[in-house]
Sequence to fold (268 residues):
Amino acid sequence: MYTDSHIHTAFSSDSETPVRMQIERAADLGMEAVYITDHQDFDFPGDIYGMSFRFDTQDYMKTILHLREEYRNRIEVRTGVELGLMTHLKDTLENYVSSWSFDYVIGSVHLVRKMDPYYPEFYEGRTSREAYLEYFETTLDNVRLHSCFDALGHLDYVVRYGPDAPSGYPSDDYRQVIDEILRILIQKGIALECNTAGLKYGLGFPNPHGDVIRRYVELGGEMVTLGSDGHQPAHVGYAFADIGNYLKSCGVRYQTVFRRRKPEFIPL
Fold:
């Protein structure tokens, strides 16, 4: 079973699952390692959405390191975080990451103009094309600016939640901006995440779409991480049984994992 490098627990505002339950599930599936990558979104508008998407990192580290020792004969438990990328937080994010010994850091865009594409108001008064394009342009601004993360999470996150998703995607409307995102990731040595939650949400493809993954490989990209984005045990390792062949069909040769922020390559 492939390593799941994107899992949430009760440290994230949108999950109630104890850390131990996620680790148990990963171990039962036969994974050799698992990452706990809870949400750390500084300046998330909690007053609007009723969730802070922040956690106590000291408490997190104490918990994970204790469980790492407890499970050392069953599964390797690795530390991680999913950072919410925002252009005004460059110094904040760099200082945060340098202050803690994470194995793996995901950078994800969850907000555009302080609006989360998860919610319908992001799409009100405009077409899906306009909403998607703004999301991708915001992602481009962030990958240009930030270099403090190891993989870009769910590049086409916005497509999960659009009112007519995934109609009209992918298309040439987004090709230029997505290509530039991929080129910057390659130049910076930042991995592209294959996030299987898109399959869970019924899109028929992971995030990003296979065409985006193929294009990443065409442009010279080699580092692809794999995560379920699971918030409960039933979603840990979601669709992993088939994802290896899917990635191979996109030209990917390895699953990239990180240990102490250094990439390791596991043949698919």
